[in-house]
Amino acid sequence: MGHALPTDTADLRATEVVGAGLRLVGRFIRGAPVPYAVAATGSIAFTAGIVASAAVIGWVTDELIVPVLADGAGIDGRLRVAILLLVGVALWKATGIVIRRSAASWLAFGSQRRLRSRLIRHQLQLSLRWYRTRGIGDLLSVSDVDTRQATFVLHPLPFATGVIALLVGSAVVILITDPLLGLLAMVVLSLAVGIDLRGSWRTFAAMEEAQRRRGHVAEVAHESIDGADTVRALGREDAEVARFTVASRHLRDQLVEVGRVWTGYRAVTEGIPAVGTVLVLVAGTFRVTAGDLTSGELVRVVYLLSLLAVPMRMIGYLMWDLANSVAAWRRVEQVLDADDVVGHGATEARADSPAGVFASGLSFSYGDGAPVLQGLDLSIEPGRTVAIVGPTGAGKSTLALLLARLWDPDEGSVRLDGRDLRELAPGAVASEVAYVSQDTFLFDETVVDNVRMDADITDAEVERALALANASGFVRSLPEGLQTRLGERGVTLSGGQRQRIALARALARSPRLLVLDDATSAVDPSVEAAILRGLRQADVAATVVVVAYRRSSILLADDVVYVEDGRVIAHGSHEQLVADVPGYARLLEAYEDDATRRAAERRRSFEIGRDDGGAPETRS
Amino acid sequence: MSAEQEPTSCSPSLVQAMRAAAAAAPALRRGLVGTIVLAFLGTTGQVVVPIAIQQLVDGQALAGGPADTGGVVAAGGIALAALAMAIVLNRIALRRMVTAAAHGLSELRIAAFRRIHHLSSLQVQAERRGVLVARVTSDVEVITQFLEWGGVGMLVGAAQILMVVMVMAIYDPVLAGLVVVAGTVYGLMLVVFQRILRRGYDRVRVLVGDSLGAMSEAISGLPTIRAYGAEELTAAKVDRALDRQYRAEVRTQSLGAGLFSTAELFAAAVTAGVVAFGVTGPTEITAGQLIAFLFLVTLFIEPVQLLVEVLNEAQTASAGLRRVLEVIESPDELPDAGDAGRDPPAGPLAVTFRDVGFRYPTGADVLTDLTLHLDAGRRYAIVGETGSGKSTIVKLLTRLLDPTRGDILLSGAALRQVPFRTLRRRVGFVPQDGFLWDASLRENVRYGRPEATDDEVDAALGELGLASWIARLPRGIDTAVGERGGRLSAGERQLVALARASLAGPDLLVLDEATSAVDPALEVALRRAIERLTGGRTSVTVAHRLSTAEAADEVLVIDAGRLVQRGPHATLVQTDGVYARLHADWAAGTSR
Asked: What is the ipTM of this complex?
């Protein structure tokens, strides 16, 4: 595949992963400080409740369990107090949880939404040249999977914030209870955290590779499903499945590798708190039998340590989520950092008169090396209809794209009435120039919205445009007429119908320059004739540039521009070019010859085969 | 399903979904028993601490007198050894689980993808393509994320519950029984909550699909969006979809949060109950055992809490799983007769339509009462106004669709009975928009017949007179055509599609306006080559230029889904009717 991402996976150290992760988290929090503050408060309240519950259990041990069961004392009112304490702490914790989790989803999903919106808005500003360097499936993967992955860390973040408070609080409580045990506990906790950090570093690089492979799977799927009809018609389903299988297994193998790395660390970091607890228990037992500590105090310390096991896992998850998010964020950032934005000037748009087109010295190549246009000069008077003709690969379609400013030339300029297209204000080119190509893209909207797009166009104008594009008939026969929904969820139109809607879309905004690149290919000859005739009439006051592939289209134009190898060879009337330009004459006359020869052959064979009802003999 | 429709709540249960998933992806189930056993053994590490506490408190701390150093150290040593074993077993179990998940999900992904290519042309258009891509990418990803976190938690949690109950029962069966009963009641409550949550997550999943569709449109449709200055319109549309998704997600998650918090109250109730029962009850429990019980209750509650948490995740994952399964289990709209089928006789194919009708599920009839016969070896052209049903005839002929009424026969053999592997070889199709893969030109042509040699590919191109065109390309026949053939012009893509069909050498060639987008000179040469190519085989061309109709042996005129006229051009043009009208328009268009 030619679209590999230039992500640099330099060997990072754990501190760099954490640093990048924390910076990323900081960026998200700055975008949503309130949700985070609320969630963190809920979380700290919750973890304070954990410490409190350990103290309660310690109290229950010293004041209730040991006296009653070991020393045979009476219960008095202490059971009631114990129950009140336990339930009270639980209510406190429950409230903390609800606040924390609700606010966490507010934070995480809100950040994901904002990030996706920002990403799409940015991509809508980027040049087509930039788009050519990425695969569509890959870009979609960034906007979908990578944004989800990048913000995923925000879900456990508030809990992790509380856990840090918990660890600090626990260390303090244990130190106060017994300095020796406290020291032991802190050593164990530090070891656990340290191993977690190292584990996340090791998983980071593996996760990034997995993400790349996921993007590749998406690309293969996207391309293959787009071509589903062709795949079926050629019976190539098995080949496509085989291709996808390779990509899927490639991803699978990397996921197994990721698992290999992180399970190793996970198992250890889960075992360490328990090991520490046993050591504390052993040391603590000696302290109790020596009388330096009560059973209740030991139970308080050990209970607290045992309660740390699950929250400590959160640190491991957070590290891993951080690594994941950093990996995904890099891919998102690549798109956000792309600065190949289409530039604009401030010149305002004009309206209500056809545009004069002047292109000088246009040179252009798609970046693959071979130049498509080489110093092309072209001048078109306002209101003229011009046909662009030339052999395949001459640069006709590219010229059309430049006239509509979908691409910018490498050298030279395109001017409308003396104004360089690049100097026009945002939206000005779109309001002056309408471009229709052979590949029609319709949106998942109603017919009228597809024709109207963003412009200020009344329903009447929409209907007029549809009539001009010869689309009124079939639109009227749709289930809901103009309000029928199109696109992949709506009604399916044939190729010719789609093209006519696209034409209506172009005509509805009364453009000053209309550029058609084989925009009537799927349309009947009678319809094409009607449309082109309609365009020549005075009330469509536009300059029309038609990239022509049929004789009928050429003959409807005022002038013909003959292009070869990226340059204009001749510009004049059809008759002039036939007379003066051998290449042009060859193109058209060969076509005419063929039609004439066919007509002659038809007449001959008709006379011969008259007896069997006029069906000609099979040609050998 | 549109966002406005509520997803039905009669979706199959999680258990059914998991069973179906295991059927589609056996790797998910492989070695599961072993993994579960290992995970169970690994949870011994969890109960080491309560047991140690019980031993040390009863045996040492409360026994009075100095510590029995040897005993304490021995207890500590045993505990540490048990922990070490648990760590090792845990690691093995986790790794097995992650590996099984990776393998299983790959199988699931491939199964769904395979199914997509067996959906009919109708289903691939009716559903959003982006949505289908999501089935094999993001939906599977969501399941992956679940299995790697929640799935692991579920397994380990269940094992831990079992282990803890065992130890509790050894200390005090009655108290253990109470804890288990309370836990069961709570578990039932969770099931009810799960059902409430599921509906919410199904809706979220639909809205996520909508967001994906809106973003996909913004990315794929950029040239059109740019050309019409509709950037803000599109961005606003994406924002609306994202906003709907966000609201539903937060709403559902908050509901889940309320649910999750009830576990805290449950834990407190059980702990209080254990303490109360322990100190007042008739049981012979010691202080150390009761203290150990408090730890064990925590170890019992943790996995229950985790299971609740995981159930949240499971909702999202199972909603995604159900959608993937929907694809995998979608019915075969175009069944392959396979070995039970019947091949049509060798040689050019004749075509018969008998009372054929076709109607889209959304409503209108496209074709009605179509009865015709096409002789083998002849050139036919189908003409008609756009929307008359021509493209549908093509899809029926190439069996990308099956008729809703009537039969189609190829030289007497029912089309439905012809195995696909034969059909694809003998019926060649050149569609309106030639679809190219991101590969070299040579490979794209070879797609027509993969076992063809380089010489045969060259010959196919030569026969069409394309040798000079190829020579002018940057790298000749090895030129990369780019994604979807983007580096070639529309006309050049058609050439490749034709060469591909030519290489396949079919007995029936179906062309849907194949030569519409090529400039005159090349079009001429191409048509001459097609003449040579269609010699000796049956060809059906959907014509949009009547010059194609003139070149055919016979023309079939379709109007509003019916065959209204038929005959050679010369006859039809002199008869009053649809054809004469179409021809007059064309002739007027080319007059000087």
From this structure: 0.81
